[in-house]
Amino acid sequence: MAKRKEHCEISVNPSLLNVITPLGLGFERNRFVLGENSAKVYGVIQYPQKVDVGWLSKMTNIPSTIVTIGYQPTDNSALISAISKSIIQNRGTAESAKDPLTRQRAEKAANDGERIMLQIDQHGETVGLMNVTVMPLADDEKGFSRVCRRMENKLSMLKCKVRTLANLQKEGFQHLSPTFPGNEQVANILNRIVPMSTFVGGFPFASSGFSDENGYYFAKDSHGGLVIVDTWLRGNDRTNSNFVIMGVAGVGKSTAVKHIALSEYFMGTKLIFIDPESEYKELCQSLNGDWINAGGGSNGMINPLQIRPAPRDEEGEESPLYKDEGNGMSDMALHLKNLEIFFNLYIPDLTMMQKAVLKQCLIELYNQFHITWTTDITALKNTDFPTFSDLFQLIRHKESTLEDEVYKELSLLLYDIANGGDSFLWNGHSTIETHSRCICLDTHTLQNTSDNIKRTQYFNLLSWCWEQMSKDRTERVLLICDECYLMIDPNVPQSLVFLRNVEKRARKYESGLAIISHSVVDFLAPEVKMYGQALLDIPCMKIIMGTDGKNLQETRELYNLTDAEEELLASKKRGHALFMIGSKRLHIYFDIPEYKFAYMGKAGGR
Fold first, then answer.
1. What 3-state class would DSSP assign to 494?
2. What confidence tens digit (pLDDT) does each residue in 46-105 have?
3. How far is residue 437's CA from residue 441's CA, in Å, rounded to a whole number?
4. What is the reported pTM?
5. Which of 45, 372, 460, 571 is deepest in the core (most CB within 10 A)?
6. Which of 138, 139, 168 has the alpha carbon at shortest distance from 150?
7. What count of Cα atoms within 13 Å lies in the side-chain half-sphere of residue 99?
């Protein structure tokens, strides 16, 4: 007795259907409507006689198109007979033709036929029937025409001929869609015999973009492919997580920086901004970060006399910043070197005698506060360190007891930092406190002060930032130094050496440094070129945006740009950049998701 079959109905999932099905579908003679998009199915009917490796990847990576490639192995014997007859026919044409062009083409066709026949017959080459359908689509008529034209031009450059599948748009869409089997009618029209090696060597699944697999969306390349970057990846030509970002005003530099900063924050990285133009305040507040007025605010005091860890020189450094002068390389000894840079930036006219006396006073002052060459600095609190009031009083005391002219000069020079207008910046114990993963050190209130004040405070902030970067080797920290040209003083190149040391040592503490400026020329002035060029060379990731004139010339020589790369920078297209990552170079475009603009605020970079 036959068993009764039970019919089981599978319930329809409306939610899934809403996701995968278009809102509507309407077919015309030469095009069709797919939901909110206009589309058209083309078929490739002719291929070039000779192709390069990866030729199919150029076809499959055209922006705003969907491509389907069908390949079915077939019997070799019929093809060999057909090729043999074709060779005989072409040889006859070549011998009888009076026209040189016809004769030349016939000879080439015969030679190509002999070569492919040898491959198939003697070497066992597999051949098959290949068909290619291409569907451009866009959501507006103007964009649709542009996409179709770009696709036709691209295939024409590849020496392929395409035709619209007139009256077969529905069948073409079914043939192309993964929800239908291949359409036999379309396949019969488009099938062409192609050797297996030609198909495989075309690398149809190769992507034109760039991917580190575990990174985040960074930008798009010139072909529309995604650029996925893991800035903390190490290996081969990627040795650090530092950035250089250059470009004239108005090319989208700040927007790109904020886009990268947000992506890093979402990936768990701690952000520290040095912000001379108050561009990142709203971004910081959007992330519930710590915005600190480092231009004289009560919560932004960083005591320059507080000893902090220093970024030591690399072993074998050609131009070291720190040298052992007989006191060892303790934190105090290194910090005294940093104070030399601080005072050179603040008072450029200090004489050698004044510097020597000032250093003796500093050592004596630290000893009065029970801080010696061997003191463990990590055990001290902010209030355990001297301030400039203490230094000023010590110098005044020595002036009155020793009656030396040098002490009198120093007391006059240091009056402003101890009791005058500059005391609001540097005279006091450190009050800066942070409790979040986004910190913005805003120095916009210093814009109307002298360059000496700006440079000195920039250097002072850097020393604090390095302490944060080197505190925990397991925490990723990205320091973003905007308007970095403010750090450059031709008379005190040691400030750039300090920055270079930060850049070199950051990788050992799972940290990164981003240098942002308008022009490489600032870093390549003869007085600072030895150190400034290192700052631009060390980072593994360089984003060079639009520029011109002398800056373009210096950039070309520094990075050995090709003519095409130089043209890209000279065009100064907003959002476009040359991206160097390790040894690779890409033309990228920052196509930033809309939701990120809500974080960016209204100051520069929108």
1. helix
2. 998 888 888 888 888 887 899 999 998 887 777 788 788 888 988 888 888 888 888 888
3. 13
4. 0.69
5. 460
6. 138
7. 5
